[in-house]
Amino acid sequence: MKMSNRIKHWVFGAVLSVSSIALQAQTLDFPHINTTGYGEVLAEPDMAEFSVQVVMVQESAEQAKQQADKAVDDFLQQLQAFGLPREDIKSGNIQLLPQMHYPKNAKPEQKGYRAVRKVKVTIDNLEMLPKLMDIALKSGVNRIDRVQLGVKDPSKYQAIARSEAIKDAKLKAKSVAEGFDKTLDEVWQVNYQSAQARPMLSRSMAMDSSERANSYQDTTIVIKDRVEVIYKLK
Question: How far apart, in whole angstroms, are the C-alpha atoms of residue 81 and residue 140?
Fold first, then answer.
């Protein structure tokens, strides 16, 4: 059964009216001030996680796999000989893919196989990081994907940043209220979503060991937080 244009318009108008009523119900009908507080804390990193890859290309899949496995096994052995616990080392399964060549104005053709294995390492001593990088490269690792610095107890720093954000919101609200000759009343609403620490990433792998060590130790992690507060005004 078809609906006439007149009925369609009435239904659409009713939906708009309901939406408007719902919106009005959410409108604050008392004097208030809405403020957002920000807080941040600087933390020195005390742990790191880095990911590396071994990528080998050979004519046969078996040759590529053997070379990738050998490089990873050598790397794992040296890590454990260096004193790193096995639970802090995670090695992924091997990936075997056809190595394709795409000549200009010609059909793609396969040129052997590519074997890829990934290893992720977590350490709690940043002084070890440059040495482990050197060990990785000497073992046959040919790609360093990422070096991410962090802190062992981020919740401790997050609590400090949160406290600073709350103080900031209070000070802003009081200052603005006094500027309009008003006085703050009770808190009516608080909106809060915990933020995440955003560690800086190391950028250069071309430095020597001593330079890399200094760059890691000089890195600072900024942990931020924010809180939105609505105060009633007297």
Answer: 17
